[in-house]
Amino acid sequence: MGTKGNNQKSYxxxxxxxxxxxxxxxEIPYIYKRLDVELSKPVEQRKYQIRIPVPQQGQGVRKSLxxxxxxxxxxxxxxxxxxxxVTMKAGGxxxxxxxxxxxxxxxxxxxxxxxxxxxxxxQRGKRSITKQRYELIEGKIRNYVVKFLGKNTDVKxxxxxxxxxxESWRYKNNARKDTGRPTAITIQNEMGMIRExxxxxxxxxxxxxxxxxxxxxxxxxPDDKVRRDTWEANEWKSFVRRVRDWLNTTASGDQDFVWxxxxxxxxLFFLANSGMRIGELVKVRNKDIxxxxxxxxxxxxxxxxxxxxxxxxxxxxxxxxxxxxxxAKRVQDHSKYKRLEDFLFCHLDGSQFTTKQFxxxxxxxxxxxxxxxxxxxxxxxxxxxxxxxTTRLQNGTSTVALCNNMGVGEQYLKKHYSxxxxxxxxxxxxxxxxxxxxxxxxxxxxxxxxxxxxI
Length: 455
Fold this sequence. Notes:
alpha+beta, five-stranded antiparallel beta sheet, three-stranded antiparallel beta sheet
């Protein structure tokens, strides 16, 4: 073994390995020990480095082999060349590709799938996503994935074992302190996004192929028991009284503030009476809603509404038969914008109310009424949709009619509301046959509502 160079960056223990060329026309790989690193150690105890030239791929591979012994270094060099050949055969790259570069490439790809705010999936394709969805993904990648892996880390050097510490790291590094500890479904959704991120890197040749992906041992199919908190009937009555007081506190603001508070208040109750998603409601124009008196007379049902949901929303076009039409009618009656093309829930200047703006107003209501602390729950705007579903089930609406009105399948309804369906089965689950009884004994009338201890 010789040396190479005559200055402070010279190589000692320099040895060329011509039989390890990655292609016949490639330059010769070589191993060596650097004279300008590990200065506290004698040269013999310093770790071997390697340089493997790769045609048309920049400087090729240059890295530490992490071993001091020559034989160990050659064995690692041989294994490394095999990996490089496999990667090249698959069309991949062996030059350093940083986590930040992969993140940028992935986000660029996802951004290309963003559809216009009024385009449907049928128009842009089933894989298309909304602008809001893209912003969520981009924020997760930037705030968590890049920071967890290190923006300058070579993605080819990251082992799958690294992801085993993701969940604990994620809990400790939550960027949104105001939301508290991330929920299980949040972590689960992020794991699914990371799998897609990693799969993208493999498909594009930035990461060596592996049959396993991050969290391969984790079942990312949503748990049937994962559902958002919502109100019980008595909790809702208490909330209604308090949120009315909240609206009164907004009367002293400027015109825009007072109007937006009024609109968000009406949206709150219309959502609770229709089961619509916020993204669906903010796209409703005057032409999309038809008010009418309910077919069934009831003191709570003063005015109903038929709402045409725009095709660009989550589950596409459908017609919603909503109670609480008076809440939408109040906004329409007080609004200056009454043309058919005008937004129903709009600002004073006629511009569209956004989902983000409603989220802000909803949080103000929840904070004022102290809902989360009072009931030990975590209320979000989607809780209104869940409240509508549970209320309808409790009042006997069929699952078929409810699914059609909410734009979901029966399997989804069973998954998220099975506990309410069980509650409503009292008549079936509690009935007893007086002719049969329990243990072949006849249960006297009046005692057939429970099983006595002395049977």
